[in-house]
Specification:
It is a single chain. With 219 residues, this protein is α+β, with helices and mostly antiparallel strands. The chain contains six helices and eight strands. It has a single domain (6-209), classed as Class II aldolase/adducin N-terminal domain (L-fuculose-1-phosphate Aldolase, 3-Layer(aba) Sandwich). The chain has helices at residues 4-22, 77-86, 99-106, 137-146, 167-190, 198-209; strands spanning 32-37, 40-43, 59-62, 67-68, 92-96, 128-129, 152-155, 159-164. Strands 4-3-2-1-5-8-7-6 form an eight-stranded mixed sheet, sandwiched between helices. α2 (77-86) crosses α4 (137-146) and α3 crosses α5. 39% of the residues are buried. Bound molecules: zinc ion. The site of zinc ion has 7 residues, from loops. Zinc ion binds next to loops. InterPro entries: Aldolase_class_II_sugar_metab, Aldolase_II/adducin_N, Aldolase_II/adducin_N_sf.
Length: 219
């Protein structure tokens, strides 16, 4: 700490964590968040309830994995670091064990083109990464592969990740992905959802580009 803007970012992280609780994205203390800052990133500490966090609890990490602060960083710091190191367009990363995304991830089932809003994650589907033990470099590698050309993915038998230019953008996308996962889950209870053609998904992707950065809900 702390330029005033860094303090504001720390406060935003806490507020976003509390919104993750309110929207049901968090299960227990399993979610974590990061925000890019000069020289590295801020990350939520491991195993703490967002209701009790104060700005000084955020961990300031450098890209080499070293950190400052009186708390231990989230055990998934490698995923946050590796995404921020390889995706310069990303400024915020959110990881959660949200109910429907994780349920699909336990089936190793990606979210296909069953709804046009799937394109909000950057492509025609939302992939599910391969499995590796939590907190490992191997898991981080699998997640990076599943995120190629995408802003979100499921993580096999684990959870989900959403990216944004800002933390607010990552949060918004995480809510969208969880909503899509819930819809897909429900549709699967009745039958096999009809999938949109790749050509239609490309058309929607193009159409959203003209919406600019607006969090458009489409028609
Ligand atoms: Zn996790």
């Amino acid at each position: 700490m702390s330029a005033p803007n860094e303090l504001a970012l720390r406060e935003e992280m806490i507020a976003t964590g509390r919104r993750m609780n309110a929207t049901g994205l968090n299960q227990g203390t399993s979610g974590n968040l990061s925000v890019r800052v000069e020289g590295g990133f801020l990350l939520t500490p491991t195993g703490m309830d967002y209701d009790t966090l104060v700005p000084g609890d955020m961990v300031r990490m450098r890209m080499d994995g070293s950190y400052e602060g009186h708390r231990e960083p989230s055990s998934e710091w490698r995923i946050h670091r590796d995404i921020l190191a390889t995706r310069p367009e990303v400024g915020g990363v959110l990881h959660a064990h949200s109910m429907f995304s994780t349920s699909l991830a336990c089936l190793r089932r990606p979210i296909p083109a069953f709804h046009y809003m799937v394109t909000r994650a950057g492509g025609e589907d939302i992939r599910c990464s391969d499995y590796a033990t939590f907190g490992t470099e191997e898991l981080s590698r699998h997640v990076l592969v599943a995120l190629e050309g995408r802003l979100a993915c499921l993580m096999a038998n684990h959870g989900m990740v959403a990216l944004g230019a800002t933390l607010a953008g990552a949060f918004k996308l995480a809510v969208e992905v969880e909503t899509l996962a819930a819809m897909y889950w429900r549709a699967l209870q009745v039958g096999e959802p009809v999938l949109l053609e790749p050509e239609e998904m490309r058309r929607v992707l193009e159409k959203f580009k003209t919406y600019g950065q607006q969090p458009a809900r489409g028609g």
